[in-house]
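Hi, can you check this record?
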Amino acid sequence: MREMTTGEYVEWYPEGYGMCFKVKRKIVDYRSKYQRIEIYETTNFGKMLVIDGAIQLVEEGEASYHEVIVHPAMLAHPSPERVLIIGGGDGGTLREVLKHPEVKRAVLVEIDPAVIHLSRLHLCIDRGSFDDERAEIVHDDGVRYLKSINGSFYDVIIVDSTDPVRHAKNLFTEDFYKCAKDVLREPGIIVTQAGSLYPLTNDFINTFNSMKAVFENTQILLSPVFGLASPWGFLVGVKGKLDFEHVDMRRARMLDLRFYDAEMHKFFLFLPKSVRKKLDGIVEGPP
């Protein structure tokens, strides 16, 4: 839910709190076939992308999201040659994936062409990744695309979607994770954004239960994401044997990163006692 007043943009979360930014002007207000897309120029933090009233990114802080959803998973895999991104039409996730020299092919499946068009025109955070020869852009429903794949093809799957509502709802289900596991090679890894960890939402719990039912090795990450309710939660499902807790930080040092490093990786794996208590019996943690 959103509320726009003169010079301010407020996103209210269902739990009764929100995020607020001072804005100079609205740049885009467009209703596509799938959703309402807005872009604002904020007072101090660059441009802000909003979809259906929910803040997706703020330019100045977008690395705190895109580096987290990409690099822990990519560095946990010994050779992430084939990567599938579902959603991510702003281009930030694709940009980070293509920083890895091991990547031979990165397919971005975005249901709404308008998100890519408007992001390229006004945000430009992809840094040319849409035009990279290793990238393929597909406009399709993510679930339908996944079900069209025959055999195990991808090393890493990244779900960079909007919240689990409307056309994105099926990206957070047990059926979706079963399809994802089928198309992952072994070893393979899937990561998805999953919403606020504090307060812990029902959407997060339901998504975790769905992934855990398919992937025995399921990890929870938390990160302070600028522009979203912090800490924001990410879920990781591992197929086969991968040590997600000890990733290859030697490779990380070769990348041009603003936010993620070895110290931040340790922080991502920490779960507050209150969260562990609510997930008691689902996820294990230190006493």
Residues 63-76 form the longest helix (14 residues). The chain has a mean pLDDT of 92.
